Amino acid sequence: MSAIAARFPDGRLHLQHGPIDLIIEAFGAVSEVERAYAQAIDRFSDILPTLVRELPTLRRPVGDAYPLLQGPVARRMAEAVWPHRAVYITPMAAVAGAVADEILQALVKGRTLDKAYVNDGGDIAIHLTPGHELRAGIFATALDGVARLTHDQPVRGIATSGRGGRSFSLGIADSATVLATSAAAADAAATLIANAVNLDHPAIERRPARELDPDSDLGDLLVTVAVGPLPDVAIAQALDSGAAEARRLRLCGLIEGAAISLGGQWRLETGGTALARVRAG
Description:
Blueprint: E1 4-7, E2 13-17, E3 20-27, H1 30-44, H2 47-53, H3 55-58, H4 62-65, H5 72-81, H6 95-108, E4 115-120, E5 123-128, E6 133-140, E7 143-150, E8 157-161, E9 175-180, H7 183-196, E10 204-208, H8 209-212, E11 222-227, H9 232-251, E12 257-262, E13 265-270
Antiparallel strand pairs: 1-2, 2-3, 3-4, 4-5, 5-8, 6-7, 8-9, 9-12, 10-11, 12-13
């Protein structure tokens, strides 16, 4: 199946190829926006075939995979997860964010745009110029607000991970939304934070990833398949574990902030970022 490019009635660009599904919006002079969209379409056609060629390597632990990867998106994936190589992680943990970053780079190259974003299933790459801002929805069971992103902040990527998403999770988070300097970096960190929202409890059912998907990069690692009712104290314990991981990553300079939710409770980890200005309701 070949790549598909279409426009929504409101002018946004939709690019889809296999599992990759992008929504793109650019702001600025009409002529510049149209040229930017044409550049994104041109770049998109080769993304999936190139990734597929390197897929076996991308499913290996990053320490083994990094030296062998050739394609630009594959390299972005490996670079994003490399700081986390002390734990088991493969470049696949950053695939959606890396695709968004790559297409955003193609979109804005040589163009004069006020702002733009590439949304790859909730993993979002952002372009901002001085005097412009984007508002990103941050949704959690007990938190429904907006993060205001401006040019002077380092945030250029947002990603969300958790149980029930597009990929398997080792943890039980309903969601872990991360702000970082790139979508790929946010994607990798969101995976680790969501994994850290965890505890042992009889209500949690796990199975080896390989039993659910023989091609999973997680192999025999136990992934969460169901979570029954948990007492509030267990929810708080799991969230505190995830918040500790988010704090560690922020203090290491790997993320700018995170919002984590589970069972109607939530935690924010901020360092004066846009997440600190989330407004409830």
